[in-house]
Amino acid sequence: MKRLSLLLGAVALFLVASPLEAEHKTLNIAQGYVAADILPLWIANERKLFEKHGLETTVTYVRGGKNIVAALLSGQSDLAVILPSSFLLANLQGADFVFVGNSHSVLKYVLMAHPSIKAPAQLKGKRLAISSVGDLSHAMTLLALQRLGIDRKALEIIQVGQQPDRILALRNGSVQATTVSTPFDFLLKKEGFVSLFDTSNEVRTLATAYTVRQKFLQSAPHRLMTERFLSAMTEAVKIIKTERDYSLRVLDKNLRNTDAEILNYSYDFLAPAYHDTPRMKGEEVQTLIDLIVAPDKRKELSAEKLMDNSLVAKIEKGGS
């Protein structure tokens, strides 16, 4: 409820007093988390691909979905690189977000448990950490419990915060399970924690989406900036797929992790998963809606209206 209230406040600001600022020459990118999934953005920065495609950029780390929603609605940021679940909830309240690309569709959330838990049934009566009710970590947790045949009411689900906070809670024993993304599942396994369920075997949806406001795309200069961004990210993916050692160095620099096993694990999972171009599929957007939005609200969102592949189509035909 607290998360929904914050989103409502951000959307109210948008509806009342946040028209887009005048056209500008710099694309302000909001990076939503620090994880291996962000590698194409890091590569594009390191190799100066944005400059190569005639684009001035700033990249700012904005922690958490509700903060990125507020940043885009206020005009502080123009484009977000993040798991897109918060934008669905904002659009339900009248916002105008649209997805213009998606780096990959393999959503890997692994339900990790304390070493003392050897089987899923032992989760009953235990505490399980999520980020917040209604977000993707919550949805993935409920999916895992469903597949494992565990009633969600059989354990205590508590809101802890972002992934680093959930991992800390798992390590210090204040919770007995949580869901994590790559490479933290591998890291926790090395520490003795137990993997109970992996969503990557089942879920295909927008895993790291590129999101803007519809109003932003209505400006021809801003639309061109977005196209150039997508061109740079497409080139970054080509580099990832062909330059393993370089990609590992960029991962190491940004994750600040010198464990070669973890870096290689991340690369081996993600490199094949990245799309050659960031084209989206309607069924994958619908999967996201089904995961995040309450059943009685799903008809208010259209997968086709939430995504815009027109700029990706231009790139595929040789644009920018």
SSE blueprint:
Blueprint: H1 2-17, E1 26-31, H2 39-46, H3 49-52, E2 56-61, H4 65-74, E3 79-82, H5 85-92, E4 97-102, E5 110-113, E6 127-130, H6 136-148, E7 156-159, H7 163-171, E8 177-180, H8 184-190, E9 194-198, E10 209-213, H9 214-217, H10 220-242, H11 244-255, H12 260-270, H13 282-292, H14 303-306, H15 310-316
Parallel strand pairs: 1-2, 1-3, 6-7, 6-8
Antiparallel strand pairs: 3-10, 4-10, 5-8, 5-9
Helix pairs in contact: 1-4, 1-5, 2-10, 2-11, 10-15
Give a short synopsis of this structure.
With 320 residues, the protein is of the alpha/beta class.
Task: Give an overview in words.
This protein has helices at residues 2-17, 39-46, 49-52, 65-74, 85-92, 136-148, 163-171, 184-190, 214-217, 220-242, 244-255, 260-270, 282-292, 303-306, 310-316, and strands at residues 26-31, 56-61, 79-82, 97-102, 110-113, 127-130, 156-159, 177-180, 194-198, 209-213. It is an alpha/beta fold and 320 residues long. Helix 6 links the parallel strand 6 and strand 7. The chain is globular and about 55 Å long.
Give a quick set of tags describing it:
15 helices; 320 residues; five-stranded mixed beta sheet; alpha/beta
Class by helix and strand content? Answer: alpha/beta
User: What general outline do the C-alpha atoms trace?
Assistant: globular
Query: What's the end-to-end separation, in Å?
Result: 43 Å
Give the rounded overall mean pLDDT.
Answer: 90
Name the helicity range. 40-55%
Oligomer: single chain
Helix and strand run:
HEHHEHEHEEEHEHEHEEHHHHHHH
Number of strands: 10
Question: What percent strand?
Answer: 15-25%
Main sheet attributes: strand count, strand direction, barrel closure: 5 strands, mixed
Low-confidence stretches: 12-21
Number of helices: 15
Give me the side-by-side strand order of the main sheet: 2-1-3-10-4
The value of Rg in angstroms is 19 Å
